[in-house]
Structure of Heme oxygenase:
Amino acid sequence: MNQAVDTPVDAVIAETEGRPLSVRLRALSRVGHVEGESEPRFAIAFLRGGLNRDGIAAQAAQHYLMYHALERAAVAQRASRGDDFAFWLPELHRLPSLAADLEHWLGADWHSAVYDRFATTGIMTYAARITEVAGDSLPHFVAHHYTRYLADLSGGQMIARMFRDSYRTDGDAGSTFYTFPEIADPAAYKDRYRALVDGAGFTPDEERTVLREVASAYWLNGVAGQDLEDRFAEYAEVTA
């Protein structure tokens, strides 16, 4: 994981020492998103209607694989910490929506296709890291939980609107991943989530673990995104 924990990350961790963890995470995200970015051809085409069905499915498959690992870790954390586990937030869970979206784009055999065709080295490395650390360690779990859910909740409505306009889908068919029907006010929900993070009671060392693992997650996400970039020509041949 050393690739993600470099001097800019260390600087953010040092400069924000003593501030609320949610503030430190937001500061880190500005570094992580810049350093984790790959060439944006795939992402631009995704939002502008420039991918074929396999390209759209490839993005959904990556999400499925990372969320499968994360939501299994959530189950493990709840089992060990009790039913009142503070970060058991089923309104955020994405696997049912992703299964519906993948079936829309790939058909009934979508599950086999995810593992046979779309489980690239980058995304499997990311999922393996979540599986390795998030089921037992609360700081590691919160790092990955924060990285995934808060980002997708933040951008979900905008992405859904652009995607549906570009591909002229029938309502939310094929893009339910970006919809959080149980969260009426995403902005207010994110404020409550950040308060939950701040109230988790982490020690200074545990906070540093959270921050470094978030940095690693940004880097791993960039590696997984590069897998999509590397197959861009295949995914952009015919519009959906």
